[in-house]
Amino acid sequence: MNIYLHVEVSSRELDSKLLLAVIAAERGHKVIVSNLGEIINGLRMRFLSPGIFHTKSLTPGKAKIDRHQNLIDSGNLITSIDEESGITTSGYNEMVKMRYSEKTINQASAIFGWGAEDSEVLKKTYTKFSYKIHKTGSPRIDLWRSDLSNFWIKPKNIPQRPYLLISSNFINNHMKPFHEIIRFYREAGYLDRDPNMEGFLIKEMSEEYNRFGYFLSAIKYLSINNNGYDIVLRPHPSENIEAWKVFLDGLPNVHVIREGSITPWIKNCFAVMHNSCTSAFEGEFMGKPVITFTPFKQKYGHPLANMLGSRVENNDELLKKANLFFDESINSKNNKENQLNDIMLDKIHFDKEELAAEKIIKVWESLDNKNLSSSVNWIKFEYFLKFMEIRGKFFNWIKKVVLFRSNSTTINHKFPDLDKKDIYDRVKRFKSILGINKKIECKLLSKKTILIKSD
Fold it and tell me: Do the domains 152-175+204-337 and 2-145+348-403+414-454 match in fold?
């Protein structure tokens, strides 16, 4: 069977997609892991044969609905797990209205839920499509498991001293200016589905600047007064990392780093500090102390995430708690068994006997038909991708030299170019941890596209 895995934000999704790909390849399937453009162009130009297109959301924007319909008309099936999981927010009723519609669910052949809450709300809201909704859990949660922990190696830029990990997610520090965010929501149809959303976003942005100021003050306070540890500030993938570097310039024990997935940074820290972050769930799951910094009463944000861990309300409480966890880590007292508390149990489905990735692949296999397993000429597809890359460079050159647009080439912060050795090493580690002896081919077809299949 041909399986096409869409990655939007590589630091968030790439490892879980590689996990899916390796297990699927071991079961005889042929898997492409790539960004949206290279998959869609390959299918549109028929260099790729029909298969399962697994995407990161079913938001009901016109462009996405049209794209999915074209894929279906060409013999492909659509499946999805929403990477904007909603696990940090109370309830799922708003998410189910904003992220889905009858039309997008009708187009999908299967929808996978992170846990009991999102799965059940989806089934109740879209009753006639309940058979399409599967409570599998997320492959991203698989990567938090202790039996897969050896997949994570120490990041290259890890500080030599123990460090407190601070997870950041400030929309006021977004890569896009606020008016571009509003434009995106308008064009994607969010503002039509919720007429109050624009006003909500404006008020949320105002509060975000306040929260940002408290965080900046707290980081500087910790930097000056801590017991001898470093601080790693981890910006969200959508944040402007250069802005953080300016704000924290001159603090020698503070490192602003956004290298790879956040999971190995959580694994190697002595504690996680956050406000309204998914990292609180991940830290709790992985048995790490979590500090929830709530310096004022918030009207916005993610209240469920802020119910986790040890809550502190000012810089002195924060320093005391961080120093305590640091001292305990020196004495090896702050390691605990990973447990799902009541908050997490509704949000996350965790099966000790079977990975979420395995459950998803079994659903895919139940959808299989002869049309989804047609052979693909991978060499032609690879040449097509190389041609597209050369053409892109040529047009960028034209813009720069002929049209004098020196800023025409931009870096894709969501999905930077892949590194061949790094990808091969990740696949090799997955094979070792999963006990896969079957020979699996892993090949980079372009800077954005990985082919994984069994020989």
Answer: yes
Q: Is the pLDDT at 403 greater than 80, yes or no?
A: no
Strand order in the sheet with 108-113: 133-135, 108-113, 77-80, 52-55, 2-6, 30-34, 450-454, 440-444
Task: Please report the sign of the dihedral spanned by the C-alpha atoms of residue 327, residue 333, residue 334, residue 335.
Answer: positive
Residue 154 identity: K
Q: What angle do CA 344, 196, 115 make, to 5 degrees?
A: 20
Which residue in this structure is represented by tokens 């001293």? 161
Residue 133, classed as helix, strand or coil, is strand
pLDDT digit string, tens, across residues 298-328: 998 788 899 999 999 999 999 999 999 999 9
Residue 338 has pLDDT above 70, yes or no: no
At 336 the pLDDT is 59
Task: Give the Cα separation of 327 and 343 in Å (integer).
Answer: 28
CA distance 30 to 47: 14
Task: Convert the pLDDT of each residue in 265-285 to its tens digit.
Answer: 999 999 999 999 999 999 999
Q: Is 75 left (phi over 0), alpha (psi -120 to 50) or beta?
A: left
Q: Give the pLDDT confidence score for residue 409 in this predicted structure.
A: 47
**What is the SS3 assignment for 202?**
helix
Tell me the mean pLDDT in the region 245-267. Answer: 94
What pLDDT does 408 receive? 45
- The second-level CATH assignment, the architecture, of 152-175+204-337 is 3-Layer(aba) Sandwich (3.40)
132's CB contacts (< 8 A; 6+ apart) are 105, 108, 109, 110, 111
The whole-number average pLDDT for the span 59-64 is 93
By residue count, the chain amounts to: 455
User: Per residue in 175-199, pLDDT tens?
Assistant: 889 999 999 889 888 888 888 999 9
Q: Is the pLDDT of residue 54 over 70?
A: yes
**287 Cβ neighbours under 8 A, 6+ residues apart:** 335, 336, 337, 338
- What are the sequence ranges of the domains in the chain? 2-145+348-403+414-454, 152-175+204-337
329: left (phi over 0), alpha (psi -120 to 50) or beta: alpha
178 vs 185: CA distance, rounded Å: 11
Q: Which of 409, 419, 410 is nearest to 446 (CA)?
A: 419
CATH topology for the 2-145+348-403+414-454 domain? Rossmann fold (3.40.50)
Block residue for tokens 């892949």: 418
**What does the alpha-carbon distance between residue 439 and residue 41 come to, in Å, rounded to a whole number?**
29
Work out the percent of the chain whose per-residue pLDDT is above 70.
95
User: Which of 153, 34, 35, 30 shows the shortest CA–CA distance to 430?
Assistant: 153
